[in-house]
Design brief:
single chain, 196 residues, mainly alpha, 6 helices
Length: 196
């Protein structure tokens, strides 16, 4: 019985370390996508957003992106020099070292929390415009935020929980904002949401 528990612990560590490596590899892609989408948002919809709110949102986005970029480097510096844990699988060394299971899980949760923060910042976009009476603005927000959520699901499919945290943080504020509108959604917004 103890041999199987040890084996499962080794497998858990291996799986979590692979997830950590994948998070580290995905962080630059997520940052690039965010920068491009933020650029499009500022270029296309800045007139519908109060300048102070837009600046605050851009600062929040920059903070989250810096955290996402910093985290893999912090984990690399904190990784033990050992090639593998005593009696553990040889495949757990590398980017995140051979950290014991609690440290590996803690690092995984650090990635998940930064992803959640990233999602919260993007979810706030739904509340930035003063009004969503403009159908084109509604449709643009729906397409951008749903597209971002779909992209995040694809980029972080290796950690479905992290992907779902991001998606919920992005789409729940959008749903709340659209639900707060008086009357039914315009056809263009409904079609954009359905197609996305």
């Amino acid at each position: 019985m103890s041999a199987s528990v040890s084996t499962w612990t080794d497998v858990d560590v291996d799986v979590d370390v692979v997830r950590l490596r994948a998070h580290a590899a995905a962080s630059p892609l997520a940052a690039q996508a965010s920068v491009w989408l933020a650029t499009l948002l500022v270029w296309g919809k800045a007139g519908a957003i109060a300048p102070a709110l837009l600046v605050a949102w851009l600062v929040a986005l920059a903070v989250v992106l810096v955290l996402r970029a910093w985290l893999p480097h912090a984990h690399r510096r904190a990784a033990p020099a050992a090639a593998s844990p005593a009696g553990g699988s040889p495949g757990v060394a590398g980017l995140h070292g051979a950290a014991p299971l609690p440290a590996t899980r803690r690092r995984l949760w650090q990635y998940r929390l930064t992803i959640l923060g990233h999602g919260v910042v993007w979810g706030a976009v739904a509340w930035l415009p003063v009004s969503l009476n403009d159908v084109q603005l509604q449709t643009s927000l729906v397409i951008v935020l749903i597209g971002l959520a779909v992209g995040a699901m694809m980029l972080t499919l290796f950690d479905l929980f992290a992907a779902l945290l991001f998606v919920a943080a992005v789409l729940l504020p959008l749903a709340a904002r659209l639900g707060a509108l008086a009357g039914p959604l315009p056809t263009a917004t409904a079609v954009a949401g359905t197609m996305a």
